Structure to design on (143 residues):
C-alpha cells in the first residue's frame, strides 16, 4: 500500500465535511461542531441512516454519497485533532481509495468506515473506530 498526499483532495473533503454538518443540522436538528465528542453524535446519526437503509433500500450511489459526506466529516474531525493529510492510497488489489494519513496510526479510511457503519450497523461504531485506530495508537506508541 502506498500513499500519495493530494492537497486538492483535502479541499474537497473539507467542503464535504462542512456539507455534512449542514445536512446534520437540517435532517437531525443537531449541530456537528468538528469536536472529538461530536463523533459520538455522528455515530448516533449513522445508526438512524442504518435503520433507514433497512426500510428504504437506497441505491449504492445514494449510500456512497452519504458515506462520502459523513466519512469526510469523521476524517476532518480526526485531522483537526491529531494532524494528518488527505490523499490517495494504492491498495494491494490495484484499486485506489481516499485516505487520511495520521501521524502514528498511518493511513485510515474514514469514508469506507462510514459506509460499513451505515450498512452493517452498531458493530461498526465510529467512536470505537476512532478510539481503537487513532486515539489508542497515539497514546501508546513508543517514542
Amino acid at each position: 500500500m502506498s500513499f500519495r498526499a493530494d492537497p486538492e483532495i483535502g479541499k474537497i473533503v473539507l467542503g464535504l465535511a462542512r456539507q455534512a454538518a449542514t445536512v446534520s443540522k437540517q435532517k437531525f436538528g443537531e449541530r456537528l461542531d468538528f469536536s472529538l465528542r461530536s463523533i459520538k453524535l455522528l455515530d448516533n446519526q449513522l445508526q438512524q441512516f442504518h435503520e433507514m437503509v433497512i426500510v428504504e433500500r437506497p441505491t449504492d450511489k445514494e449510500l456512497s454519497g452519504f458515506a462520502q459526506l459523513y466519512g469526510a466529516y469523521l476524517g476532518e474531525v480526526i485531522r483537526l485533532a491529531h494532524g494528518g493529510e488527505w490523499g490517495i492510497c494504492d491498495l494491494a488489489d490495484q484499486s485506489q481509495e481516499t485516505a487520511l494519513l495520521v501521524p502514528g496510526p498511518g493511513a485510515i479510511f474514514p469514508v469506507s468506515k462510514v459506509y460499513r457503519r451505515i450498512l452493517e450497523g452498531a458493530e461498526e461504531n465510529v467512536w470505537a473506530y476512532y478510539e481503537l485506530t487513532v486515539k489508542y495508537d497515539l497514546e501508546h506508541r513508543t517514542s
Notes: The longest helix spans residues 60-82. The mean pLDDT is 89. The radius of gyration is 15 Å.
